[in-house]
Amino acid sequence: MRVYLSGEIHSDWRDEIIAACGDLELVFDGPVTNHAASDDCGVAILGVEAEKFWHDRKGAQLNAIRTRNGLEQADIIVVRFGEKYKQWNAAFDAGFCAALGTPYITLHDDDIIHPLKEVDGAAMAWAQTPEQVVEVLKYVTNIS
Amino acid sequence: MRVYLSGEIHSDWRDEIIAACGDLELVFDGPVTNHAASDDCGVAILGVEAEKFWHDRKGAQLNAIRTRNGLEQADIIVVRFGEKYKQWNAAFDAGFCAALGTPYITLHDDDIIHPLKEVDGAAMAWAQTPEQVVEVLKYVTNIS
Amino acid sequence: MRVYLSGEIHSDWRDEIIAACGDLELVFDGPVTNHAASDDCGVAILGVEAEKFWHDRKGAQLNAIRTRNGLEQADIIVVRFGEKYKQWNAAFDAGFCAALGTPYITLHDDDIIHPLKEVDGAAMAWAQTPEQVVEVLKYVTNIS
Amino acid sequence: MRVYLSGEIHSDWRDEIIAACGDLELVFDGPVTNHAASDDCGVAILGVEAEKFWHDRKGAQLNAIRTRNGLEQADIIVVRFGEKYKQWNAAFDAGFCAALGTPYITLHDDDIIHPLKEVDGAAMAWAQTPEQVVEVLKYVTNIS
Amino acid sequence: MRVYLSGEIHSDWRDEIIAACGDLELVFDGPVTNHAASDDCGVAILGVEAEKFWHDRKGAQLNAIRTRNGLEQADIIVVRFGEKYKQWNAAFDAGFCAALGTPYITLHDDDIIHPLKEVDGAAMAWAQTPEQVVEVLKYVTNIS
Amino acid sequence: MRVYLSGEIHSDWRDEIIAACGDLELVFDGPVTNHAASDDCGVAILGVEAEKFWHDRKGAQLNAIRTRNGLEQADIIVVRFGEKYKQWNAAFDAGFCAALGTPYITLHDDDIIHPLKEVDGAAMAWAQTPEQVVEVLKYVTNIS
Amino acid sequence: MRVYLSGEIHSDWRDEIIAACGDLELVFDGPVTNHAASDDCGVAILGVEAEKFWHDRKGAQLNAIRTRNGLEQADIIVVRFGEKYKQWNAAFDAGFCAALGTPYITLHDDDIIHPLKEVDGAAMAWAQTPEQVVEVLKYVTNIS
Amino acid sequence: MRVYLSGEIHSDWRDEIIAACGDLELVFDGPVTNHAASDDCGVAILGVEAEKFWHDRKGAQLNAIRTRNGLEQADIIVVRFGEKYKQWNAAFDAGFCAALGTPYITLHDDDIIHPLKEVDGAAMAWAQTPEQVVEVLKYVTNIS
């Protein structure tokens, strides 16, 4: 089973989940999590831009090569919403999965359940901790 | 051509666009824009919930009946990001359109181009004013 | 909007809904609701069968011409589970809709929520009365 | 070839089929067959619910992560209807496969051919015993 | 409902069906039924070919513009196999419909049920007379 | 039937075809054919760009809103290659149609059949004159 | 690359092709080629039928489990038309591939090019000998 | 990750990219790059043609067997436009990818950005050198 870990890149939730799933036959995927590299990849590789909008566009589209493939090939997606930033890319990924019909789990605290109601409304589960995500992954892949 | 107007529901941008496109053969669609009705439709129709999470779930899923159909039938979507709220539903709609391959336009100020870079990166155009959206709609539907 | 009314054919729930939605611009569709005609259409038109299995097969496949088209063209499906019969065809229709990604509402009493948990789990709403279905249809098609 | 074994979880029909197919290059998949675990997985992992409906919803959606992936990846599905319970989930799986165009076989006694006529009508075969299913799997995968 | 009448073009079965369905709200479609025009349309419009193979290719592809659109837009297809010719185009159309998941009915005598077993095996019904086809069309489109 | 006229915008081939098809029930669609408007629409509506690349990008993506919808909704596409310019957009449209499975006709002189062999290889017909295109449209839409 | 060998089962053309492609990294697939087994598999496994039509139906649908999977997973299909029998199943397979967009090659003598014009018209190549098919497979899979 | 290298076959850009990506887990694919073999494969294998048009058709369709499979299976496509020839096949491939939703990168000098604006407009990135393509491939496949 392929698991795509989408969203927040400022805490170590991905590492927690991957480490705790060591015994499962899972392949983990996700976006580039180096914030600076992710922001500047476009101009670093393909040349500088005077306009911030096109600077961002170049980077966003390079990252999209990776994220589109990751989302389309995943069997299950975990979408993490943290405390900082707008995180519209995480909601974008959730909408992308909803259209594909790929099951996804949200991972966020309970103080943002109202603004996330549409995102949660199309999710298969809402987890509040990485441990719960691990338990879900163990459950759905167990050999009963 | 069917145009779906997604996102912010606290200013009159939809009315501006619809009024200015009066001469075009366009059908406009969008979510329920009455904020209270949109939030509480689930429990109002299907019964109260003690938990806020399920209160929101009921409403979000009722609204999804309308929004899914609207997004899937649209030829072009306009996704508006305003100044208030998290607006993850707008980003969710954009991701949904991206997966469907339906062209969409974003409508937002230039102070949020960085957090919207993934959403803009999959868009066909970024407009800063409803007037620009109207010009785009006129242009793409003109009879040259 | 096209609404397909699936499931139980022994009470007048379809008539109730259709009558109460008279003012909405909805097109209603559904299976043949004459039980005897539905059971025997195959052999009545295409010739008798000695084996009950093929008698049923002939009818089921004729009915499927209608139901497949109805389900595929619908924007929203209502799936009604009543008190009698196995009603596997209703659950089959729900699974068919789930795979298509078409939003559906279930309509059933609360004494069967446990056996219907998978069917409800993929639904956008659970209604207990035809009146609630009508309210949902009014809500999702209103012009706010 | 991937074979998904859907439906009844109270007899050992899965084990019979898997054991008898030991020589074939088949990968078997299916739902969690521990009834209690399947019913309660949602609340056990993600927190208790006061309402039975949401208790069931949580579990049904967790299980759906596994079953959706299993159904979508399968080359052939066997859908077993036993003597007990409503088994609407089995019919739901059959409808899901029908919409995907994935071939499925039903496995049930002849006393329920009438209520299963729509489910059988979209099936590639009706088997009455696990042995027959095994023979079908051997036949369709043989190297002539 | 759109009905596509595929296959044999040497008897008046299409006219019979269309005439008898006069009261139904059906749109009928089908291939060009003028045998000479159908065979020679390619070279007549686009220039002569020395090789019979390319003469036929040109015609077959022109006809395919019409037939592909007709098959893809149809809600139900009737595939008629007559007594003469190889009629591989009729079987081709049936296979095309099977892949699309569009319901089709075969119309042929009982002396060719064995060679047509794969074509019939994916059909929703086998009719032996145009009258039966008419009855099927009446049944699946009736307003009960 | 919807006919999309793609490609060269410097001669009046579209007008010729549309005029000659006056009696047919066809809806014609196509790109904006005003060369200057097509090139500059992006910056004219959405603001000037210092870089030619982004100037062109803005315009190309606005035009793509129209062309994508036109190509996806068309039943038949005519792709015209003229004598001037690179015309990669016309070949792009042909590839887009090939992936969608939508029948298309090429319209070009015989001195470019070699470089167009891949584009012609996926086409249903090659016409050398607008008159031939008209005859094809008449043929495929006739009521025999 | 997966190659599906469809059609005629009375000569050794499959063996010829497979043997001659020994050095290529190809996986070959195809229907059951034991004529008697193919005709009678349904009743042999699932019980006898009094009616020839249902005898054939049972077998055809069992075989369809194998052929549908084989056609859907193939990268290239070879469809062989021989001298005997109606071979509607071969044309059915070709139509199925055409709808899926999977490239196929026909293999047949030149005395049946006219009745096969629709089948050839959607093919990527027409071969007259197994040797030519082998050359095509070598060519399309070579590492230049 | 599968990378398809489409377009110009007269310089060694493919070798440069493949060599520089030696450490990455990438599978490279592409068309036959032997120009003469690519042009004449059809008649060489399947028999000579008197007409240049059909000579080319035969070759183009054989090549399409390979290119269609390559494009459909690729996770990322690089489309190279060089200095010579019309290169409509490269633009055709780009359009094909756009319709499939598969991310592609263009590789071309800056003197042709205007005629390539539609092709670039649907691309995820524009590279001017093979080195940049290599950097992109390294970036999107890195394990951060």
Task: Describe how the helices and strands are arranged.
Eight copies of one chain form a homooctamer.
Chain A: E1 2-7, H1 13-20, E2 27-29, H2 35-46, H3 52-73, E3 76-80, H4 88-100, E4 104-107, H5 117-121, E5 125-127, H6 130-141
Parallel strand pairs in A: 1-2, 1-3, 3-4, 4-5
Key words describing this protein structure:
homooctamer, 144 residues, alpha/beta, 5-stranded parallel sheet, 15% strand
Describe the structure.
- Eight copies of one chain form a homooctamer.
- Chain A is an alpha/beta fold and 144 residues long.
- Helices cover 50% and strands 15% of the residues of chain A.
- Chain A has six helices and five strands; from the N terminus they run E-H-E-H-H-E-H-E-H-E-H.
- Chain A has helices at residues 13-20, 35-46, 52-73, 88-100, 117-121, 130-141; strands at 2-7, 27-29, 76-80, 104-107, 125-127.
- A five-stranded parallel sheet of chain A has the order 2-1-3-4-5, with helices on both faces.
- In chain A, helix 5 (117-121) links the parallel strand 4 and strand 5.
- The longest helix of chain A has 22 residues, at 52-73.
- Chain A starts with a strand and ends with a helix.
- In chain A, 56% of the residues are buried.
- The A-B interface holds A 52-53, 56-57, 59-61, 63-64, 67, 81, 85-100, 110, 112-122, 126 and B 52-53, 56-57, 59-61, 63-64, 67, 81, 85-100, 110, 112-122, 126.
